[in-house]
Amino acid sequence: MPADGKNPEKWSSEDKFAIVLEAASLNEAELAEYCRQKGLYAEQIEAWRKACLQANANSAAQAKARREQKKKDRRQIRKLEKELRRKEKALAEAAALLVLQKKSPGDLGGRRGRMISPADRRHAIGLIDEAVMAGARQRKACEILEISVHTYQRWMQDGVVLDDGRPDAQRPAPANKLSAEERAEILAVSNSPAFRSLPPSQIVPALADEGRYLASESTFYRVLREADQQHHRGRSEEPRRKAPSTHSAVGPNQVWCWDITWLPGPARGLFYYLYLIMDLYSRKIVAWGIHETETSDLAAGLVRRACLSEGIAARPLVLHSDNVSPMKGASMLETLRRLGVTSSFSRLRVSNDNAYAESLFRTCKYRPDYPVSGFATIEDARDWVLSFSRWYNTEHKHSSLKFTTPEQRYTGETTEILEHRKQVYREARARHPNRWSGEIRNWELPEQVWLNPEKVQPDLNQAA
User: Fold this and answer.
1) Which of 127, 190, 211, 416 is the most exposed, having the fewest neighbouring CB atoms within 10 Å of its CB?
2) Among the CATH numbers 3.40.80.10, 3.90.180.10, 3.40.50.2300, 3.30.420.10, which is that of 248-411?
3) Distance from CA of residue 31 to its chain's centroid?
């Protein structure tokens, strides 16, 4: 250690550590003698000893921190490797599904119980297995071909593609099946002189009057049809089933719906009548009125006012309403004839033929500020409905209009608004593609709105 009279505080760390080691085994007296020989103070040695302990502790903490950091780094590396494998697997699956979609034979899905040819089955099984080998999940591959995993498993058993055994299946005869003798008896009775000109609906009751029962009316009809003896007879035309009449709109002011509802008055049993006309295409309220009575004259006046305010006099227009007296009164029908408006009425005993108007009334009466206890005067009712109609037309974002307002749909602003929403969603998907499992939200509005879509839809599919 230095003995050249240099200041001990300027000694090197090694020299100070050596002093601490030498003094570690000394008692108080020996330490005092040692300090005088070295030109040191006991406090200096104690301070150096604490510094050594602190340095040792810091070194241990740093070593521990390095070990923890290595563990974190290893965990992060494993996480990144797992994410990389997942993405590689997802990319492989996407590529396999794209190839499968291009090779898809099509026409494999559809209603339950369809007959799929053996060749189409084998082709589909081969494509699915190929996609799975390329990295796709079996469920996803089946979805591309529009079949379920259970269908795949039913087709593929023990490595062999099974054919559809239904055409050649031997089905046991029903226990209640008519015997040949019973069928012959039904035909003989139907063609007997007493019943040869009567339908089964009259034959069966007549037999019951005679104390005989052979079969039900439906069984009679079935047996006659199977024997090719059930055809339309007589001079009348053969009945034909027609699709229910309906109307559609591809723009505003082509089809209107209107109805009348009750608004509660100042006392129980007293009501005001809300007359309201709505445009089918845009759902906009085009006219309304509140009166103390329900008459055809008031309805006719409302229609005239609506046509004038919308500027559609002498233009093609369909006005749909319920099939009740105020809608079918003479003054109302004459007004429609003069204005060139085609009237349309709900079918009897069909509760949902005027669903759009009924839905609007429900929205009206379930507003938070709707006075359930009743309107004090008819002026109060008119003020409230005026506020509601303004809110409904210009502020209410209609769910059937992709959450745009009726006024925006009426004026054509929805095209720009929905296109902007689609752009926002495309940009969001571009920023975070891993958060999107499919296409963006559908912001398309149908260009054609049907008055009764549930009635006309089957005919559209059949025509297609």
Assistant:
1) 211
2) 3.30.420.10
3) 88
